[in-house]
Amino acid sequence: PLSLDDVRTSAEAGDQRAQKALDAIARLAPEKRATATWAMVHRMATQQGKDQYFDPASGYTVFTAGCLKKQKCCGYSCRHCPHDRPQSPQSKAAQLANDW
């Protein structure tokens, strides 16, 4: 999985796209940076063909939309779910996960 540290390392090694993304995030208001950072890492992971990235705020591994397109919807309301699901009751597995 791609991490924010990987993006920073790429920027230091001369990757202009990574540096431009980091600079843009640094200019944002502090309350917008967390969301913009995971969105940027997701975008870069997708561009690199990776299926996962590390959420910079939580450290959790997150599936990219590209990875999720390869499988059926699991019903867990994944952050980057590409599936258009009708509003329906959650699956038993999703309900159990939400109870935790």
Descriptive account of the structure:
With 100 residues, the protein is mostly helical. It contains five helices and two strands, in the order αααββαα. It has a two-stranded antiparallel sheet. A hairpin with a 6-residue loop joins β1 and β2. α2 runs antiparallel to α3. It is globular, with a radius of gyration of 16 Å. The C terminus is likely disordered.
Mean pLDDT, as a whole number?
86
Low-confidence runs = 96-100
- Structural class per helix/strand content? mainly alpha
Count of helical segments?
5
The rounded Rg comes to 16 Å
Widest beta sheet: strand line-up: 1-2
- Please estimate the helix content: 40-55%
Largest sheet: 2 strands, antiparallel
What's the shape?
globular
Distance between the termini: 25 Å
SSE pattern: HHHEEHH
Structure summary, number of beta strands:
2
Strand content: 5-15%
How is this fold's topology laid out?
Elements: H1 4-12, H2 16-26, H3 30-47, E1 52-54, E2 61-63, H4 65-69, H5 92-99
Antiparallel strand pairs: 1-2
Summarize the structure.
Helices cover 51% and strands 6% of the residues.
Task: Give me some keywords for this one.
single chain, 100 residues, mainly alpha, two-stranded antiparallel sheet, 5 helices, disordered C terminus
